[in-house]
Specification:
The complex is a heterodimer of chains A (about 375) and B (about 290). Chain A is α+β, with helices and mostly antiparallel strands. Chain A is about 40% helix and about 25% strand. Chain A has helices spanning about 5-15, 30-40, 65-75, 125-130, 150-155, 160-180, 220-225, 230-240, 255-270, 285-295, 315-330, 345-355, 365-375; strands at about 20-25, 40-45, 60, 80, 85, 90, 100-105, 110-120, 135-140, 185-195, 200, 205-210, 240-245, 250-255, 275-280, 305-310, 335-340, 355-360. The longest helix of chain A has 20 residues, at about 160-180. Chain A is elongated, with a radius of gyration of 25 Å. Helices cover about 35% and strands about 20% of the residues of chain B. Chain B has about 290 residues and is an alpha/beta fold. Chain B has a seven-stranded mixed β-sheet, with helices on both faces. A seven-stranded mixed β-sheet of chain B has the order 9-8-11-10-12-13-14, with helices on both faces. The two termini of chain B are about 20 Å apart. Chain B is built from nine helices and 14 strands. Chain B is globular, with a radius of gyration of 18 Å. Chain B has helices at about 20-30, 55-65, 80-85, 100-115, 155-165, 190-195, 215-225, 260-270, 275-290; strands at about 10-15, 35-40, 45-50, 50-55, 70, 90-95, 120, 125-130, 135, 145-150, 170-175, 205-210, 230-235, 275. Classes of the chains: A alpha+beta (about 375), B alpha/beta (about 290). Chains A and B meet through strand 13, helix 9, strand 16 and helix 13 of A and helix 1, helix 4, helix 5, helix 7 and helix 9 of B.
């Protein structure tokens, strides 16, 4: 679950990381009002959801409330990262002595959190960032977390000394605590600003919470659902599957992520998949019926292709759900299914009786060939 | 020969009385796996498929011969369950469970490693040495003994690859599911190294996907140390930037985790990349002939 910048800053504030004075505005009038209250030049940042490292949203500065009003009108008309701008974070524009970019990422290779810091923006590739002599980095022990002496060494590595090094290290450690407390996959300052008075404030911040850890934060459950932009993807989440909308016309249902990716890759060579969908383990008749109905919601579908493996999944149960929807909803487009694994014979029988074209051989490429043959008929 | 598991493997099932644990215990036994004990707190003294159930790992270890454990326990208790197995002295843990918080996985991995033990998973279909031992959730009939090692980031892709090799009469030494999470217990390089040392394995098939840097780093290992042919198949070429494609670890943002890096690394290492699953068997045959 990706947080809006203002939400990330709120959680950081709870850990003692200050950010510039500011508020969220929903209209140009509100933006001007906040600018007036601040009484200084402001920076206005569109609040959009974007994975850390993604293309940053446009921002604008304004010296007066009138300028803020005018600039906000332009920003509210924008679509960034596929999202219509609905909120602006209006904050005091800080005088900058130095900027420090900090990111905490999960390093799969080390199996540990990787903390990167630099006076320049950080590379999106860990290896590239680590290789730069302008970057201070280290791994944290997953049990002990980032120790203060470790954070101080990083600050010194960036050329900070004395009081400034201690203060910077303190903010990096607070960022780590926020990352740890919220089970984040990524957290960072983009950037942390040192003012001429020597204070450190989070001018930019990001936080992505691990979806697998949301059970620890029941207060975020509802919110995390509402954050999924695509209504079909949101519905997928509520029925316990992963749906990713693509721009084609062939519906795809798979019982695993790997075979799901292989399937959309192969369909894309000759046509266009409408979606990626994988059920994960533990399908039931009802869930597969829900999944069929979900995939069929996309307008203009020419056919549906299922790729099912009976490992952990009872595919014969799933097959019942598929044919139930074909019958009840009078599905008239071709449905083609490859089904292999435990209970495959029973699954084939159920599908064939329900009017599904069944493929009983293993390679997905051959099954996709059959799909296109069926579609061309 | 094989890697990780063979006919000497004695398996304990943690979470044996759950729906998944019980069904998969039945399939594992059918495949010839020697399961000597199960553990579910509060259910000690009962039996599942004839396997004695204990309240704790320690009690199971005291009465049965066990050298490997497989876990079908809920994500929220995996960290404790793995620690219990490690504290009791087990050295091989297969963690099937999906959706474990990544922070937990990092701690589990660190704990297991600091005790000189091996963790496979999480989010893994498991490990199978066909004809000898099946630990996990894979459809057994798709696998057959032979000279090919398989390493995958996905359960279903492991079935597809093994199944199509088996259909072509090419068997497998061992298939290991690395798991689809951002952090896994045992990575691609370590598994390639095990296959490299296994005299029976003649060729290794690797399934990779978008996200992380496992493939890029493995390419360097292959170039420098691998003495056997490696064939790769990659999934996730058609993915939406910033969307997790079913696996928590299968995501790219700009260059981070992108497919191009992986394809380039394998190409530079001279690893043939099958364009579709149907091509894999052809490449494997060619490599076996040498």
């Amino acid at each position: 679950m990706i947080l809006y910048e203002h939400e990330a800053k709120k959680l950081l504030k709870e850990q003692g990381v200050p950010s510039p004075r500011g508020e969220v505005a929903k209209t140009p009038q509100e933006a001007a009002e906040i600018a007036r209250k601040i009484g200084k030049p402001v920076i206005m940042k569109p609040q959009i959801l974007i994975l850390p490292g993604g293309r940053a949203g446009d921002f604008q500065t304004a010296a007066t409330p009138e300028e803020a009003d005018r600039a906000a009108q332009g920003l509210y008309r924008k679509t960034l990262n596929g999202q219509q701008v609905a909120e602006l974070l209006v904050e005091e524009s800080l005088p900058v002595q130095k900027e420090v970019h900090v990111a905490i990422r999960v390093d799969g290779a080390a199996g540990a959190p990787l903390i990167l810091a630099s006076l320049d923006p950080l590379s999106d590739l860990d290896e590239e960032a680590k290789a730069s002599n302008k970057v201070a980095w280290r791994h944290a022990d997953p049990f002990r977390g980032l120790q203060s002496h470790e954070a101080r060494k990083m600050a010194k590595g960036l050329g900070f000394t004395g009081d400034a090094a201690v203060k910077l290290a303190d903010q990096i450690q607070r960022l780590y605590k926020t990352y740890s407390q919220w089970n984040a996959l990524a957290a960072g300052f983009n950037p942390l600003v040192m003012t001429p008075e020597g204070n450190f404030l989070a001018a930019g911040a990001f936080l992505e919470i691990d979806d697998s850890a949301l059970f620890r934060f029941p207060q975020l459950r509802e919110l995390s659902l509402s954050r999924i932009q695509d209504p079909l993807a949101r519905e997928g989440k509520t029925i316990g599957v992963t749906y990713v909308g693509l721009d084609g016309d062939i519906g795809v249902i798979c019982t695993g992520a790997g075979i799901g990716m292989a399937t959309v890759d192969l369909i894309s060579k000759r046509g266009r998949p409408a979606n990626f969908l994988e059920t994960g383990g533990g399908i039931t008749e009802k869930q597969m019926a829900d999944v069929m109905r979900l995939v069929l919601k996309k307008p203009g579908l020419k056919g549906v292709f299922l790729n099912m493996y009976g490992g952990i999944n009872p595919i014969h149960e799933g097959a019942k759900g598929v044919v139930k929807v074909i019958r009840e909803d009078r599905v008239s487009i071709p449905v083609v299914a490859k089904a292999i694994g435990n209970f495959q014979e029973e699954t084939w029988k159920i599908l064939e009786e329900g009017g599904v074209t069944v493929i009983k051989t293993i390679p997905t490429d051959r099954a996709v060939d059959e799909l296109f043959k069926r579609l061309e008929k | 020969m094989s890697i990780l598991i063979d006919e000497k493997t004695r398996v304990m099932v943690q979470g044996i009385t759950g729906r998944m644990g019980a069904v998969q215990t039945m399939y594992m036994l059918k495949a010839g796996t020697k399961i000597t004990a199960g553990v579910t707190p509060g259910r000690g003294g009962s039996r599942v498929e004839g396997v004695p159930v204990y309240d704790s790992v320690e009690e199971a270890m005291a009465e049965q011969e066990i050298n490997t454990t497989v876990l079908f326990v809920p994500g929220a208790v995996c960290e404790e369950s793995c620690a219990e197995a490690i504290d009791a002295g087990l050295k091989l843990i297969v963690l099937i469970t999906e959706h474990i918080p990544t922070h937990d996985t990092m701690r589990i991995r660190a704990y297991v490693r600091s005790h000189g033990a091996t963790l496979i998973g999480p989010t893994t279909p498991g490990v199978i040495t066909p004809g000898k031992c099946r630990i996990g959730i894979m459809p057994t009939h798709l696998f057959t003994p032979g000279p090919v090692g398989i390493i995958t980031r996905s359960g279903t892709m492991s079935y597809e690859i093994a199944g199509l090799l088996t259909a072509e009469g090419v068997g497998q030494t061992t298939m290991v599911g690395m798991g689809g999470d951002p952090v896994v217990g045992t990575g691609l390089i370590e598994l390639l190294d095990l296959f490299n040392k296994d005299p029976e394995t003649k060729v290794v098939v690797v399934h990779g996907e978008i996200g992380g840097t496992q493939e890029e780093r493995a390419a360097a290992y292959i170039r420098q140390k691998m003495t056997k042919p490696v064939i790769a198949y990659m999934t996730g070429k058609v993915a939406l930037e910033g969307s997790r494609m079913g696996h928590a670890g299968a995501v790219f943002v700009r260059r981070r985790g992108a497919m191009e890096n992986k394809l380039k690394a394998f190409q530079e290492a001279g690893v043939p990349i099958a364009d579709s699953p149907g091509e894999i068997a052809g490449w494997v045959r060619k490599a076996l002939i040498g």
